[in-house]
Target: Small nucleolar RNP Sm protein
Amino acid sequence: MFPNKKVQALVGQKIQVEMKGEKNILEGTLVSADDYLNLHMVDTTEIQGGQKLRTLGSVVLRGNNIILLNPLKE
Amino acid sequence: MFPNKKVQALVGQKIQVEMKGEKNILEGTLVSADDYLNLHMVDTTEIQGGQKLRTLGSVVLRGNNIILLNPLKE
Amino acid sequence: MFPNKKVQALVGQKIQVEMKGEKNILEGTLVSADDYLNLHMVDTTEIQGGQKLRTLGSVVLRGNNIILLNPLKE
Amino acid sequence: MFPNKKVQALVGQKIQVEMKGEKNILEGTLVSADDYLNLHMVDTTEIQGGQKLRTLGSVVLRGNNIILLNPLKE
Amino acid sequence: MFPNKKVQALVGQKIQVEMKGEKNILEGTLVSADDYLNLHMVDTTEIQGGQKLRTLGSVVLRGNNIILLNPLKE
Amino acid sequence: MFPNKKVQALVGQKIQVEMKGEKNILEGTLVSADDYLNLHMVDTTEIQGGQKLRTLGSVVLRGNNIILLNPLKE
Model:
């Protein structure tokens, strides 16, 4: 399964995303993703050291600024 | 709804944008967006810690330098 | 009007540009712009805190390193 | 062998990846790679000075933020 | 004249280039440029505060990491 | 000769590469390069102040994160 298909397979699940130049991690439910890895997430929160820092709600992330993403271990 | 369509759906609304390498957040009304997430915004202000820092007015933002954007909660 | 058309509409006018990783702002007259937002500007100066820092003259800016641009308020 | 083919040839092997703006190295087993060097890795760990720092498991890495990758010497 | 044509018009001339994340400026003679603004330069030197810091000779610069370039005022 | 052809012409030779966000220089023998300047190098070492810092061996470098490359003067 190619990387973009792997991301598609995470739609509807909770994921963690590290963005370029950001110290903190974003967690939320993946609503949609395109082939550039642009992401639409809802219920998004910014996490620092395991603590909620900020509630962002519905966000769009620009794919080229994603360092990595992975499914959230619950 | 794909991420670029989600952004299109925000045209006419107030949004918040985090840009790469910027400490501050930009707030303004989204006038137009293309598939690269290049944005045209008006009534744009730069916000730091909830305070207006600078009035920018009409601005064009380069999509690849957007970290994330979300609708402004009012 | 899409963001790239908005930029085209600024040809011949004085604009301000913030570049990635630059503290200072570039001001100059926009001569041409393409769809990647690569810009050719003349009479360009580097501005820091409202003061001219350096005269650059005719410059080409790489579009993907533009954070934002706006028409210069005169 | 072109660079993207070299990466394809590493599928199934353990690799090391340096990401842009990250101090630490990611190590894991390469599951898939596309022509943009987007990578899907499993059993991924974050390494600092030869020590495991964090277990990440299954991750997708955005190709344009990869500085370099090489096969892990065992 | 579009920005890429402006760069083409500088072939054979001495130019100055500011690269992303570099403190210093590169000066050299432009041998060739493509539409991505990848550049081949010869007799290239690294300049800091008007002083030669390092002689680089023949170099290839990746276009997307160029902040700006301009003809060298002699 | 366009910049990508210049790079092709260096295949089989020892080159130096400066990567974005890296303090150190990579030296190695260029095995292959594509039009995005993705590079495959072997016998790669990381150099700091003229001293070998780390042996990397066979590496793939992502083209968009290359600042500049030049043939190694021997």
